[in-house]
């Protein structure tokens, strides 16, 4: 997380431990709290802590009075943190006493799984395992073509595949793992990819064979590797910046209304948008690859976690997109379909209103720059009432994949009914 930083916020000195050499960040006895502001002054305090403190990790942030914040707090700052909130009258609830115990359990399962040499959907996998699996699919299936959507700062491949059963299909671009710690995202992309190749369900076969699929499980490879090797809760890229901090938020770095809303200009913030649009080689090179497919892609789907939301443009403004009504109706049908299998309830809406203002996102860029009019972001399991969405138990991978694929079938059916795939240039 960079060099030690001391920041004074409202009279509190907040300092955060760091990792050096081969050491990994640990969260022994780090507590997780839920805080709910009941006034604008309380909301202001929480927002200031989030923007100014490197000692607190905000797993979830509220945008309005009455919305939950989930915050990881280091042991040596428990007193300062709780007193600051109590002095302002913020309601605080302890959710977890030892964040590290969850991370240790997760890692032990992964070590055991890797020793057996399996690749299935009952656990999470490291980047090299995912890439090896993509290579294997390309050798097994004539319909699978390896792709490189760019590269990372540390020169890792942004590896993906194209699945195509016939020429002339409209294209669907699927992006996973842009935020490194959201492991359910690459796992869900991999699950859907596997089903497109192996499922015998007629509805799945229909979308598999009548669309071209550009599938990229992990578009922030450096960050994803870092979550496995160094810091499980890392979100950003790994580009070094002055002041001893690293990385920008790759979903605030795209060149579409960059840095207008919901973006920090502080390098050590999780929502740092970078020094300029496309400052990160990951977003720049991936955007160039996607732009080369202009006319071939009719839908852009991005997977994140968590909160159980289906979002669509825009994030930089509350003004509605040109086909807002269609996107809204398609989203409603999609989340209705998703809920049928397990009863998982999603909410939906444009990004700005449904979750929070956020500019420079990939989905907005695809919509606004490449004119891809079917553009959605999934915030996968768990719901907003949970706090441990980034360390989601692996037993939820398959159910998440199943219900998400159900919903994708509906999303494509509903958008097809509205004529979104009729003008496929270059297909």
Automatic annotation (TrEMBL):
The keyword Cell wall biogenesis/degradation does not apply. Its main location: secreted. Keywords: Carboxypeptidase, Disulfide bond, Hydrolase, Metal-binding, Metalloprotease, Protease, Secreted, Signal, Zinc. GO terms for biological process: proteolysis. Pfam families: Peptidase_M14, Propep_M14. Residues 1-21 form the signal peptide. It is found in: Secreted. Residues 123-415 form the Peptidase M14 domain. InterPro entries: CARBOXYPEPT_ZN_1 (IPR057246), CARBOXYPEPT_ZN_2 (IPR057247), M14A-like_propep (IPR036990), M14A_act_pep (IPR003146), Peptidase_M14 (IPR000834). GO terms for cellular component: extracellular space. Coiled coil: none annotated. The keyword Membrane does not apply. Its cofactor is Zn(2+). It comes from the Eukaryota. The active site is at 379 (proton donor/acceptor). GO terms for molecular function: metallocarboxypeptidase activity; zinc ion binding. Involved in the digestion of the blood meal. Belongs to the peptidase M14 family. This is Zinc carboxypeptidase A 1. It comes from Aedes aegypti.
């Amino acid at each position: 997380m960079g060099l030690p930083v001391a920041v004074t916020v409202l009279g509190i000195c907040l300092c955060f431990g760091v990792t050096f050499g081969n050491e990994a960040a640990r969260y022994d006895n780090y507590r997780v709290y839920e805080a709910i502001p009941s006034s604008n002054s309380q909301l202001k305090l929480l927002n200031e802590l989030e923007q100014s403190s490197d000692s607190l990790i905000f797993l979830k942030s509220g945008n309005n009075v009455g919305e939950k914040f989930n915050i990881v707090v280091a042991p040596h700052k428990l007193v300062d943190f709780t007193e600051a909130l109590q002095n302002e009258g913020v309601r605080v609830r302890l959710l977890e006493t030892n964040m590290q115990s969850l991370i240790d359990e997760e890692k032990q399962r992964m070590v055991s799984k890797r020793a057996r040499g399996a690749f299935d959907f009952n656990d999470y996998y490291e980047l090299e395992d995912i890439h090896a699996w993509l290579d294997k699919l390309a050798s097994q299936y004539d319909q699978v073509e390896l792709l490189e959507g760019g590269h990372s700062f540390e020169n890792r491949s942004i590896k993906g595949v194209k699945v195509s059963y016939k020429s002339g299909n409209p294209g669907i671009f699927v992006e996973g793992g842009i935020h490194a710690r959201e492991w359910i995202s690459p796992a869900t992309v991999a699950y859907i990819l596997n089903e497109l190749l192996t499922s015998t369900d007629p509805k799945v076969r229909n979308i598999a064979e009548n669309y071209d699929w550009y599938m990229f499980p992990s578009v922030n490879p450096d960050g994803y590797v870092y979550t496995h090797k160094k810091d499980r809760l890392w979100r950003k890229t790994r580009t070094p910046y002055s002041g001893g901090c690293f990385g920008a938020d790759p979903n605030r770095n795209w060149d579409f209304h960059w840095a207008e809303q919901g973006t920090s200009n502080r390098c050590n913030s999780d929502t740092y948008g970078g020094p300029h649009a496309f400052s990160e080689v990951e977003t720049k090179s991936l955007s160039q690859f996607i732009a080369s497919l202009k006319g071939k892609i009719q839908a852009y789907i991005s997977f994140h976690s968590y909160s159980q939301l289906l979002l669509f443009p825009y994030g930089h403004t509350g003004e509605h997109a040109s086909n807002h009504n269609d996107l809204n109706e398609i989203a409603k049908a999609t989340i209705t379909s998703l809920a049928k299998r397990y009863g998982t309830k999603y909410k939906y809406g444009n990004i700005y209103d449904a979750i929070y203002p956020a500019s420079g996102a990939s989905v907005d860029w695809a919509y606004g720059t490449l004119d891809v009019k079917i553009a959605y972001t999934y915030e996968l399991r768990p719901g907003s009432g949970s706090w441990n969405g980034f360390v989601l138990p692996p037993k939820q991978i398959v159910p998440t994949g199943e219900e998400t694929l159900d919903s994708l079938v509906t999303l494509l059916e509903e958008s097809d009914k509205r004529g979104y795939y009729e003008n496929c240039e270059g297909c």
